[in-house]
Amino acid sequence: MADIETLGILEEIEALVSDKLQVVSYKWLSRSFLVTSNVAKRLLHEFVEKHGGGLEVVYTLSGWLKNDPPVYHIRLVSEPKLAEAKQEFDGHCSVQVYSVQACIPKDPAALWNAEFVQAEELFKQPFAVDNCLRDNRFCGISNSFVKRIAEGAPVSNVASQPKTTGLLGPSKSISAPQTIAVQQPQERKVQQSSPKVSLQSPSVVTDVKDESNGTRAHDQASKPPADKGKAPPLPANKKKGQNDKSSGTEGSLANMWGRASVKSKPSCAPVDVVSAEAQICAREAVEGASSDEDGQDANFKRASNGDGGRKRRVVFDFSDEEEEFEDAVNLASPDPPKGKSCIVSKQSPKPLVPDKINLNSDQQKQDKPKVKEEKSSNRESNLSPREDSSVLSKGKNNGISSSDKIAGGVPEIDVNKKDKVTDAAPNSPKRRKVMKTRIDERGREVTEVVWEGEAETKKADSNETKKSENSIVTNAANRAPPAKKSPAVGNTAPSNVTGKAGSKKAGNSKDPKQGNIMSFFKRV
Amino acid sequence: MEAMEIDAEKHLQRKQSLYESLDEKFRIEKETYRGQQYSQIYFARLHMMRTLIYSLIPNWKPHLPVCTVLGLEEGKECIIVGTLYKHMKLKPCILDEYSKERSVAPLVKPHNFMHSDDSLVLEDESGRVKLGGTMLLPSVYVTGTVVGLHGKETSAGEFLVQDILDADLPPQIELPLKSTVLSIALALTREDKYVVFVSGLSVGSSTSNPLQFQLLVDHITGHLGDEKEQGIAAQIVHVVIAGNSVAVPRGLLNGQNLASKDQSRLSEPIKELDILLTQIAAGLPLDIMPGPDDPANFSLPQQPLHRCLFPGSSAYNSFRSCTNPHSFELENIRFLGTSGQNVDDLEKYSEAKDKLEFMERTLRWRHLAPTAPNTLGCYPFTDRDPFLIESCPHVYFVGNQDKYETRLIKGSEGQVVRLICIPKFCETGVAVVVSSVSS
């Protein structure tokens, strides 16, 4: 490095420390200016010699202590205490500049913050990118035997965070929700979709990010269950098959993000999807109902990954149309086989589904995590497992109808499922959906389907205590008015529901015809 | 000159070593749960150990007959072999929770459940017999150990113990270089390779200082220090993290729905750990074991932490998620260790002067966790007991202890074992480095 460069860097350090009051540690320096750690330390040393006055310097002392048995000690000391700290060491100890800052923070751990933020940034880069964090290139010891497997290169890695890519991407990686059950099909799909994904991923990624890292993490965490879950994979597989045929497009990834691409496909898919979903939903419902979160997670994941994509795609396209409604429902549950849709439905009473559909692809992705959360939460809070399953089934059958049903209540769902499927189709044409997207209080993007002519669609958010789901439910409820689905159930349900439903109901107060959870209990 | 220094490539190469994992027996993948309970694992344990002890009896007291518990005759001296059961008054019992009179604060858990009234019982398939006499100290033994006892039955129906036979240290594979002239010469030229053990990182807890762990990581990977220091670091060939690596904020998990910001808070510690592990894994092989507080299963043997928890680090071929207990062989040196649950449980039900003594006892009883499944959660194996130690390790470590301790113990057949207690890093900031050259 030329001296000029050195000078330039030194000046920058000065600016950072004095003006921005940042802690400049040697690690941070090495990563920012792409120099090795040894060089960075040397630079800091020079800097301290030239501009050191007025700035706090922290040194590292490393060496063997004098006590017995000999202990190898690494210590950070500030300049004033350097001399006496050196005394504790037995013989030679290496003194190096660790960091330079305007003032030493009270909590020593704050010295580490700037460095960690930088590490986090590097960590979040796309999975396939090999950066200085990942290959440890600036350390003093090289090790050629360490290899990093950047899998899933084709998919999702484009423009997505490592996490998301993990999710979506590497077809092999279990983490990707999609991949779990549907690994092979997923892979195929994924690859196909990759181009799409990449196109959309930027937007999606951002959306996803906005959604909540938490959810993503949640997803990721859930993935493991998905991976392990044998059950979910089965349905997923089935779903996938269906998805495959239905979507015939790339994997869920594409679906997830590629609304645009989805559009083309969904048209054909919906029908297949619906049927497939119905079956899957049924299956899922069973599994979902009985299984724990894992199942849901798996489903969710799947949905989110591929299904979401696939189904979503389908759904999206449809969302605009009546028929899509059904698909939309499925979307909620996304994932290659109905699982997703089912799952989705489970979580949040169907309303989610419609929301999902309507939402952008981004939403889908986000929905998934939400859905999952909601699902789980719903399950616990709102619905009994039965409901979930029923919801699922509903979801399967018809996007729309299920959503309606969900709002109504569990019992209705069961009954309605079947009906709904059929109903959904016919129903959709009747109503005109208008989708509105907004951010709810939790920061989630909620797409609500507001039926034209409905008194209100948005109330969901206000009502629910639980989550946007509730709102969805209400939405669904709103939608349902024309509901052919199970008018009887719905009617009874509402009354019951109001009695017991509580929060859920709150939202639905408007929608007496919609079934509600209580109706489920009643019937049972 | 300065430019040259700056441009100098790192010329230090990290040492490589041969590693072989021996965790197969701790995996539960092939087991099926059909609702069985623990009788089978106890039977497997008794069977294996009894065969072993029977083979040792001729060397110990060949003149005495061996009989089963049911075959005891009054006054006749004999040897019986069976599983010990310690009857403890203070041992928490689930039925206490349902008793009519419940004290207001039943949650006070004594650190140690021992009582002067504890008594031992020996049990084999045929029956049980109460043990008496002063040779066998209830404070030393715990339920689940298999021993041979020499004594006789008294008129009261007790078995008066006169001598005890432990299985003692298992046979040990000799280290390749023993004390011969040639080996000493080789030893001098042999490279010294280091294995770093650390446990109790507790990333995400309020007590852990991330700066400390970062310093450790920097040192291990070769960022810190000058040439000499980095030279030392280049000799580190392996890192083992022995449990309790992450502190999940359990306060959030109260059965309520998680808000999205809570969800990110829940996963923050694991993400932070993943970033730090990536830094290590990018430089050298790393083993991570689950611990009592980690997101892994509760019962022993704990299965490896799932690689989905570590999306960043699991991409490396140097990252290995291991079971707890963990056994591996590095450069022909056999390591065996746990994350601390076995010794901590022993501490609750028996006493010894230090943790190393507990460790020594487990080796002499040839069983890693004798209190499992009695008081330590364990999987109900049907045909084997994976905690039996068949081959004596050269290094035996236990993680998550209060302080660093180490000792060398010797066996009757020339076995030499280095016992190590790894302290909790979040509290002490101490990691243990083991050198491969015996000393």
TrEMBL record, chain A:
<feature type="region of interest" description="Disordered">
    <location>
        <begin position="180"/>
        <end position="269"/>
    </location>
</feature>
<dbReference type="Pfam" id="PF09507">
    <property type="entry name" value="CDC27"/>
</dbReference>
<feature type="compositionally biased region" description="Basic and acidic residues">
    <location>
        <begin position="455"/>
        <end position="469"/>
    </location>
</feature>
<feature type="region of interest" description="Disordered">
    <location>
        <begin position="453"/>
        <end position="524"/>
    </location>
</feature>
<feature type="compositionally biased region" description="Polar residues">
    <location>
        <begin position="180"/>
        <end position="204"/>
    </location>
</feature>
<keyword id="KW-0539">Nucleus</keyword>
<feature type="compositionally biased region" description="Polar residues">
    <location>
        <begin position="379"/>
        <end position="404"/>
    </location>
</feature>
<dbReference type="InterPro" id="IPR019038">
    <property type="entry name" value="POLD3"/>
</dbReference>
<dbReference type="InterPro" id="IPR041913">
    <property type="entry name" value="POLD3_sf"/>
</dbReference>
<feature type="region of interest" description="Disordered">
    <location>
        <begin position="285"/>
        <end position="439"/>
    </location>
</feature>
<feature type="compositionally biased region" description="Acidic residues">
    <location>
        <begin position="318"/>
        <end position="327"/>
    </location>
</feature>
<feature type="compositionally biased region" description="Basic and acidic residues">
    <location>
        <begin position="364"/>
        <end position="378"/>
    </location>
</feature>
<protein>
    <recommendedName>
        <fullName>DNA polymerase delta subunit 3</fullName>
    </recommendedName>
</protein>
<keyword id="KW-0235">DNA replication</keyword>
<feature type="compositionally biased region" description="Basic and acidic residues">
    <location>
        <begin position="207"/>
        <end position="230"/>
    </location>
</feature>
Automatic annotation (TrEMBL), chain B:
<comment type="subunit">
    <text>Heterodimer with subunits of 125 kDa and 50 kDa.</text>
</comment>
<dbReference type="GO" id="GO:0043625">
    <property type="term" value="C:delta DNA polymerase complex"/>
</dbReference>
<dbReference type="Pfam" id="PF04042">
    <property type="entry name" value="DNA_pol_E_B"/>
</dbReference>
<dbReference type="GO" id="GO:0003887">
    <property type="term" value="F:DNA-directed DNA polymerase activity"/>
</dbReference>
<feature type="domain" description="DNA polymerase delta subunit OB-fold">
    <location>
        <begin position="37"/>
        <end position="164"/>
    </location>
</feature>
<protein>
    <recommendedName>
        <fullName>DNA polymerase delta small subunit</fullName>
        <ecNumber>2.7.7.7</ecNumber>
    </recommendedName>
</protein>
<keyword id="KW-0235">DNA replication</keyword>
<keyword id="KW-0548">Nucleotidyltransferase</keyword>
<keyword id="KW-0808">Transferase</keyword>
<keyword id="KW-0239">DNA-directed DNA polymerase</keyword>
<comment type="similarity">
    <text>Belongs to the DNA polymerase delta/II small subunit family.</text>
</comment>
<dbReference type="GO" id="GO:0003677">
    <property type="term" value="F:DNA binding"/>
</dbReference>
<dbReference type="Pfam" id="PF18018">
    <property type="entry name" value="DNA_pol_D_N"/>
</dbReference>
<comment type="function">
    <text>The function of the small subunit is not yet clear.</text>
</comment>
<dbReference type="InterPro" id="IPR024826">
    <property type="entry name" value="DNA_pol_delta/II_ssu"/>
</dbReference>
<dbReference type="GO" id="GO:1902969">
    <property type="term" value="P:mitotic DNA replication"/>
</dbReference>
<dbReference type="InterPro" id="IPR007185">
    <property type="entry name" value="DNA_pol_a/d/e_bsu"/>
</dbReference>
<keyword id="KW-0539">Nucleus</keyword>
<feature type="domain" description="DNA polymerase alpha/delta/epsilon subunit B">
    <location>
        <begin position="195"/>
        <end position="404"/>
    </location>
</feature>
<dbReference type="InterPro" id="IPR041863">
    <property type="entry name" value="PolD2_C"/>
</dbReference>
<dbReference type="InterPro" id="IPR040663">
    <property type="entry name" value="DNA_pol_D_N"/>
</dbReference>
